[in-house]
Amino acid sequence: MRDVARNLLWPFAAVAILMAFNALRDPAFLHLRLVDGRLTGAMIDVLNQGAPVMLLALGMSLVIGTGGIDLSVGAIMAVAGAAAAAMLHSGASSASAVGAALAVGAAAGLWNGSLVALLGIPPIVATLIFMVAGRGVAQLITDGEIITIAPDAAILAIGRGSLFGVPLPVLTALSAAGALAALARLTSLGLFIEGVGGNEEASRYAGLSVRSIRIAAYSIMGLLAALAGLIDAADIAAADANNCGLYLELDAILAVVIGGTALTGGRFSIAGSLLGAVLIQTLSTTILRADFGGRSVPVELNLIIKAAVVLALCLVQSGEWRRLCRPIRSAAA
Amino acid sequence: MRVVLSRHWPLLATAAVFLVLYSGAAATLAGFFSWFQFTRLFADSATLGLAAVGMTFVILSGGIDLSVGAVIACSSMLLALLAGESGWPLWLAAPTVLAAGGAFGAGMGGLIHAFRLPPFLVTLAGMFLARGTALLLSPDKRIELGSHEAIRSLSMLHAADFTLPALALLGAVALAAAVLRWTRFGRTVYAIGSDESAARLMGLSVGATRLGVYAISGLCAAAGGIIHVIGTQAGDASVAFLLELDAIAAVVIGGTVLAGGRGSVVGTLLGVLILAIITTIPGYLSDLNSWWTRLIIGALLLLFVALQRLSQRWHEQ
User: Fold this and answer.
1) Residue A129: which of B122, B131, B302 has the nearest Cβ?
2) Is A320 on the interface with B (CB under 8 A)?
3) Are the C-beta atoms of A130 and A72 separated by less than 8 Å?
4) What is the mean pLDDT of residues B170-178?
5) What is the pTM for the complete model shown?
6) Does A140 touch chain B if contact means CB atoms closer than 8 Å?
7) Under DSSP, is residue B264 helix (H, G, I), strand (E, B) or coil?
8) ipTM of this complex
9) CB proximity list for B160: less than 8 A, separation 6 or greater
10) Is B164 helix (H, G, I), strand (E, B) or coil?
């Protein structure tokens, strides 16, 4: 438990510092108002825009927990969004379009999981295949065009609606996190996943079905990526096979690493990944809002700061770095 | 014969796929079977090919480099900036860009080795860093070099219809093949990829070699950026977006094992040419949509990865 608290401390402090920075520059950042029965404010926007990455990071923590990685989540988002928009376009109801998108996402995850678990292909390569081919599938579904969704379609509520004043994407991400935490920690699934990632052979001797646990992790990932794709498509009321979810696999992996989950597997933290996703979005929002001496900061700076964050986190997590720092720490004490 | 088959069959499989694709395209597409189109395959894929040559070194050593596309973009911007706006002579600007690319790669390799960091994350950070720098170098994200005499005359250079980009690719492949086969460094790359601790116990310099591998990848990507400037007369900050995926795909289709230790740069060249044929075909067929190419590349990738697994199991038995 102390371990979890220590891992969450850094990302939590980072979010708090960024929030404080924004609030000092512009006190309106902290304001929350009810407009037409819907909470609005910069902090709600952060959560709302961060919802897709939150969903991806949740699934990614399971996959990374098994010692794997999923590069195809952006492509799965694009395929799921394309499937939903194409269903609506051909006259299907919003409910069946959502069902189709989720089914497509789960199927893509099943495919990835099968390549990894049954054929024994390294996860980077196995999911690279769908990352390359997935956008082709999405363009095949949309016929290479951007399919728009009618402005009165019920499906748009997934990206734009709200319940009890809270935007639906935020509620979706939070309830997915709750459901996943329950699934992982109240049942033995979480333990099994950590077992497979920590020591595959020992898990097998302990009687675990390593293959089905792996496949389950990738399938859940696919399902959550499809949900993120639906939110994205509903938000812009269109399925864009080229740009939906582009680069988000990297943000999701980054969020998981920020949350204290090691890429080597064997351990994962759902709360940490959620916090990591919030940190990434807070960082982007801060850079977008910040200006120095009347000059606005170029958005591209975001990429460079992200690079610095990745490197700093890698270093802090590495044993060699800690060994280097030990003499300094003992001198200070 | 059996030795040749058992040792080189991944390369032979790649060569077979290349021949089938090439002769298939030559038989069905009017105008495809010509010396000019053949040389075009090399010229069109020069930037990707150079990056893939560098990637071959990295993957052979058991690593991965996600930064090459961004380094290509950043190098093209840097060259356009130095040779264009700053007015440096090309003989000074081009080596500076190459050195910058090599140093960038060496920096990543150093971090990976010194702190035992996962190559995936370090080069991901490198990708963000290089892409961000490229976009920040010019507010227009693009630097045109329309009136640059030296670069224009370089773009006209050719031998036997091979343009300078195509010649650069061929030269890089030949040089890389020689280095991998005949130098101590090259053999160490294979040794690290097969079994790092064994290589260390044998007294091989693992750290310097790892540094060198990523430096070569950065150098090759920078060369790709220079080639891009020569080909388009402009530096472009958004070019080569996610090109690292195609480079990895070309290396894998070329028969190099992703776990490292086995493969060849000649295979990578064949892999690059296979990708070039697949992306050229839609230009001949108006009714074939270009997104089919993504699907076909994915399918080929799957085929070769599955073949690798089969051969691995066969070796283990």
Assistant:
1) B302
2) yes
3) yes
4) 94
5) 0.85
6) yes
7) coil
8) 0.78
9) B39
10) helix
